Amino acid sequence: MPFGDDKINSSWEAVKELKRLGLSKSVDLHVQEIPVEYEAVRDLLPLLWKQHQPKLVVHVGMSWKATTVTLEQCGHNTGYERLDNCGFCPACHCCVKGGPDTIQSVLDMEAVCQRVRDSGLKVAVSVSKDAGRYLCDYSYYTSLYLGERRCAFVHVPPLDKPYSSKELGTALQVVVTEMLQLLTKVERTEKQPHNPSCQHHH
């Protein structure tokens, strides 16, 4: 959706390009545009998680400050005081009443970032721990909470500052592919049986 004074939201243009490019045949990619509105996020995200039951949700948003494709490590619960596109702000200034202050993604974004760099992608990628306390952060925390941390957030710069929609879409393709591969490794680790020391009772 349009964001502030920007008529074109680079994140949606990048996601549309990702949809055109696709992922591997084994990945069922669903794309959804979400309004820059707190109430829309609050109402829509639970329905999407329930409907699709995804292995991983990757939110993508535009940041005026970004000059790289930025991988956000965590979402924050409180500090939401800026008005959305409808002039609304949550009265509690938080995502989930009583929820933890921050929720970390199940994915190590530094590891994802390194894997993307190793791939030879010609788009700069970095990691952040502050998604901005606006709709991006609000969406991210909400999905982390709903999806037991199986979520990621990617911030992209405005179009042509310095990357085109095609370059951003290609970057998303590489980033999401690496995230899914790393998530598979995480799941394998979680499924490995623990081997506590043998205890004999006499």
UniProtKB/TrEMBL annotation:
User: In Gene Ontology terms, what is one molecular function of this protein?
Assistant: pyroglutamyl-peptidase activity
Please indicate which superkingdom the organism of origin belongs to: Eukaryota
Keyword Ubl conjugation on entry: no
Q: Where is the active site?
A: 136
Among InterPro entries, the record links this protein to: Peptidase_C15 (IPR000816), Peptidase_C15-like (IPR016125), Peptidase_C15-like_sf (IPR036440), PGPEP1_Cys_AS (IPR033694)
What's in the GO CC field? cytosol
Reaction it catalyzes: Release of an N-terminal pyroglutamyl group from a polypeptide, the second amino acid generally not being Pro
Class of this enzyme? hydrolase
Please state which protein family the record places this protein in.
Belongs to the peptidase C15 family.
Q: What is this protein called?
A: Pyroglutamyl-peptidase I
Organism this protein belongs to: Merluccius polli
The opening ranks of the lineage are:
Eukaryota, Metazoa, Chordata, Craniata, Vertebrata
What is the gene called? Answer: Pgpep1_1
